[in-house]
Amino acid sequence: RAGQLSIASEHFASFVVQDLLSREWMRFNALNSGKVCILATPSGEDHVLGLHLAAYVVAVHGHNIVWLDANCPKEAVAEVATSASATHALLSFSESYPKDEALDYAEGLHRIVPSSTQLVFGGRGCPLKIPGTLSFRSLQDLSAYMKQVR
Question: Which of 101, 120, 118, 98 minimizes the C-alpha distance to 54?
Fold first, then answer.
């Protein structure tokens, strides 16, 4: 962001951090017995570093993760929410994700996801203040919320 790294260096650094985070949250996840939480990014969103950070937060608080990865159609999220009886679906939006697409995706997902699944949006590009959903711009706020989920 500060222009001090080349694109290749930034990609490599992101990969190393994602690899570390994914190994750690998967280690916790294997032992967890908490609520089922889906994690994904919306269609067209390929940035997953924030999603891995969120997965770590969710796993540290004892919840089970169903990882749907990047670029996930809303219909797939809704289908898995139903089949896995997920209590939460967490979607990560980078700040480069188009704001109008973020809003369309979030509102469309809200219409089709089971009412028993709480939608949680995060990241600098996430839509805010959609009735019936939660939005967090910081991992600290997400952590405080996940800590209280029982």
Answer: 120
* Tokens of residue 31, six digits: 């032992």
Q: How far is CA 129 from the centre of its chain?
A: 17
Query: Percentage of residues in the chain with pLDDT exceeding 70?
Result: 99
- Residue bearing tokens 């809303």: 74
Q: Tell me what percent of the residues of the chain surpass a pLDDT of 90.
A: 93
Q: Which helix (H) or strand (E) holds 20?
A: helix 7-29
Q: How far apart are CA 105 and CA 35, in angstroms?
A: 24
Q: Look at residues 112, 103, 100, 149 and name the one whose alpha carbon lies nearest to residue 130.
A: 103
- Is 5 strand, coil or helix? coil
pTM over 0.85, yes/no: yes
- Supply the DSSP string of 31-93, one letter for each residue: T--S-EEEEEEETT----HHHHHHHHHHHHTT-EEEEEEEEE-HHHHHHHHHHTT-SEEEEE-
